[in-house]
């Protein structure tokens, strides 16, 4: 995902959820993976590079 974001000129911030409390406070009920943009939950499951590119295009109009 980092490479896809860099190629698209998107600043990607990765935060690792390390505790049960952080998982409880995650934006979705699945504390494994969350993709957010401006506080909006875009996905809550792992993505392929192609799916991530499509989300970047749709959300950022690239």
Can I get a quick summary?
The chain has helices at about 1-10, 20-25, 50-60; strands at about 35, 40-45.
Can you tell me about this structure?
- By secondary structure, the chain is α+β, with helices and mostly antiparallel strands.
- Helices cover 39% and strands 11% of the residues.
- The protein is elongated, with a radius of gyration of 12 Å.
- It starts with a helix and ends with a helix.
- The mean pLDDT is 88.
Overview features:
single chain, 62 residues, alpha+beta, 3 helices, elongated
Structural classification: alpha+beta
Mean pLDDT: 88
Q: Could you list the spans in which at least 5 consecutive residues all have pLDDT below 50?
A: none
Could you give the distance between the termini?
16 Å
Total number of beta strands: 2
> Rg from C-alpha positions?
12 Å
Helix content: 25-40%
Number of domains: 1
Strand content: 5-15%
Shape: elongated
Biggest sheet features: 2 strands, antiparallel
Organism: Flaviramulus aquimarinus
Protein name: YoaP-like domain-containing protein
InterPro entries: YoaP-like_dom (IPR025685)
Domain YoaP-like: 12-54
């Amino acid at each position: 995902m980092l490479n896809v974001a860099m190629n698209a000129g998107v600043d990607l911030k990765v935060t690792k959820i390390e505790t049960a409390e952080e998982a409880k406070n995650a934006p979705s009920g699945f504390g494994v993976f969350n993709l957010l943009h401006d506080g909006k939950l875009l996905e809550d499951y792992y993505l392929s590079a192609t799916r991530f590119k499509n989300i970047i295009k749709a959300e950022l109009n690239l």
